[in-house]
Structure formats: structure tokens, C-alpha cells
Structures
1.
Amino acid sequence: MGKKMISVKTVVAIGIGAALMFVLMRFVAVPSGVPNTNLNLGIAILSIFAAIFGPVAGFLIGFIGHTLTDLTWGGVWWTWVIADALYGLAVGIFWKFYRIEEKAFGVKQAVIFNGVQIAANLLAWVAIAPTLDILIYQEPSDKVYLQGLVAGGLNIAVVLVLGTLLAIGYSKTGSKERSLKAE
């Protein structure tokens, strides 16, 4: 039998992560004052799941969670879905450096995690989403770059506080020793 592309544990994490992201984005959205831009607690869930389960999980959680949210608002804004998916991918690429599953998430790992999330948020929300909005939807550049700056800044703050606290808390649970194992 060949090597699995993705574990059952990761598939379950994708489902749970996407559902949590959807609920937080849809029902705990706090308006920022900039049209169509909210303080998004779902970004912390996306970040922590990507940091624990890696880039495939991060990408799919961002894609599915944001798509479900947009579908319930009346239409999918694909440029922002893509930005969230790429954000999850970027955070997940460095998952082994965070050492959350090893119960070793300390100051060094928090600095790495937050450095990566800041860079990924800036890339996703200040570069990718607004640029795609202009190219695909012919949106005015001043509008979408303002939305991107606000979304990116809010996301950075949420992940810096809530995402880091979740990573510290999860790391202290001893999850690796208590995880389900195949027999």
C-alpha cells in the first residue's frame, strides 16, 4: 500500500477547522467601519489549525470556511476566498517550526509563528486580495487597498493575541500523548 497523501486526523481537522472558521466569520463578525471588512476571529482558528496540521489543512480550511461564509451572505467573493486559502497555506508551510504538537511552543516559536502570520497576512490582504479585486472585479484601487490594509491589520492583531494564546494553550494540553493512534 502506498503512502497516504493526507491522514484521517488531518481530514477531520479540516472539517472541524472549516466549520469553526465559518461559524466565527458568519456569526461573530465585528464591523470595522470599512465597508465589507470585519474583525474576523475565524482567522485565529485558521492560523492555529494550519500551524498544527500543515499547509494542506491550512489551504483547505481557509478555502472551505471562507466559501461557506460567503455563500450564506449571498455570493462568493473569490478573491478573498483565495487570499484566505493562500494565507492558510503560508502559515501551514512552516508548521514544523512552531512545534505545537511537541509541547514546545515557547517564545522562539511564538516569534516565528507571528513573523510568518504577519508576512502571510500582508501578502494575502495587502497584495493578493486587492490586486485580484482590481483584475477580476474591476474594483476601484483606493477602495480595495483600504479594505486590504484594514483586513490585514485586524487579522494580524487577532492572530497575534488569540492565535498565540490558542497555540500556547493547545501546546500545554499534551495532545501528542493523548492523540488517537491506529492499532
2.
Amino acid sequence: MMRALRTAATGMSAQQINLDTVANNLANVNTSGFKRTRIDFQDLMYQSLRVAGSPSQDRQNPTGLQVGLGVRAAATQKIFSQGLFEQTENPLDCVIEGDGFFQVTMPDSTLAYTRDGAFKRDSGGNLVTSEGYLIEPAVVIPPEATSISIAGDGTISAQLPNSSEPSQLGKLTLARFSNPAGLISQGKNLYTVSAASGQPVVSAPGTQGAGTITQGFLEKSNVSVVEEMVNMISAQRAYEVNSKVIQGADKMLEIASNLTR
């Protein structure tokens, strides 16, 4: 079988994964806190028909003869650049201006991390995510609380009955990672720790490199529709070209098989 057939097939497979990645980015263009994914490619092994520097009669070959065997999708990487801010009417909406993640307590008591600050109150007054997962550290907002305020350092205060001054209800903290690209996406705007991400460094907002919190805003997706459309067209054209290579290789095999007729 001609090498071109298998090589072009790896190119089509890689571009399919590329298009899948672009499709997911575009699908989440309006997802709060979403971070776009970039795909990295690597060339595959090479078949050496002649090694560079090998002797040839009374001289030395200055170059070798190698044939590449295709490409593969090597990695997908989350790009944690800051998204645009969108002002909302919800006093519980929070945005992180800078690095860091909100901490979320999962049903199995493990921690997950998110950039999505669209918080709500459950029936018990607990501060939760849109999925109902508790924010860590836990914050309880009494039903009678009014004028809820979230300061840049994460302090949550509210006006309570029979109190002339706002009462402090709790304080949000942020987690930072040495390699946030190593976090594992779990869906629902959540990430979990991996060996590559390193362990979280938890601190108050505005300290130890963590960003500050702004109330009444949400961080929009950092997906650029124009850029992703260009990537989609590029993937489509690359896929088409690789299919043409397969057609060309098949035609050459047909010609070669007809030589004996």
C-alpha cells in the first residue's frame, strides 16, 4: 500500500479532531466563564531510507532520505485569557478580574473549580452554583437579608433587620494553579485538579497573585467568533486536501495495476 494513503488518512483524522474542537468553542461562545480550547499537532515517525552523513562510495551523503508518516493531534490546551465583562442585575453575580478560580464543593465532598460566578441562593440560603453545588467556603445568606454587597477582597455583607450596620456573612477565597492548562474539564463550567496542574494555592482575592472580585458582573467566554470561523475554514480545507491526496494515491495505484493488462 502506498504510504500516502495512510499519511493522508492521519491528516483527515487530525483535522476531524480540529473541527470538533472548533465546534465546541463556537457552541460555548455565550457560556459564562468558558475558556476556548486550542489543539496542538505533532508529526509522526519518519521512515529513513538513507541516513544523513552515511558513506556513499568515496563520499558522504550531505542529507538523508526520510519519508514522513503523517500527523496526530498531540494535545488540547485551555487558553485562560480574560474574557469580557458583562454587567447584570443580579447582586450575587461575581467576576474574577485577574487569575484565580472559585472553589465548589461537589456532592462527594471533593473540590472543583470554576470561573463562572453566576451564583444563586438555594432554599437554605446557601450560596451555590447554577447546578446547586455549594461554594467553598460556605456562605449562608439569611432570607431577610437585603442590600447584599460583595467587596473586592471577597467579603460578603448584607443589611439585616434590627441592625444599623451591614453584617459580614462570609468571605470568598480564590484558588490559583501553577499550570491551569493542566486542569481537567468536567463540564458544567467546572475543572478538577490533575498531577499536571499542581495543587491549588488558596488565598484571599487580591493577595498572592489572585485577582479581585467585582460584584454585578459576569465573565463572558473568551472565544472569538471570527477567529474560530477562520480556524473552521482552515480545517475544512485541510481535510479536503488530504482527501484529494487519497484520491490521487488511489488513481496512481490503479495506473500501476493496469500496467500488466
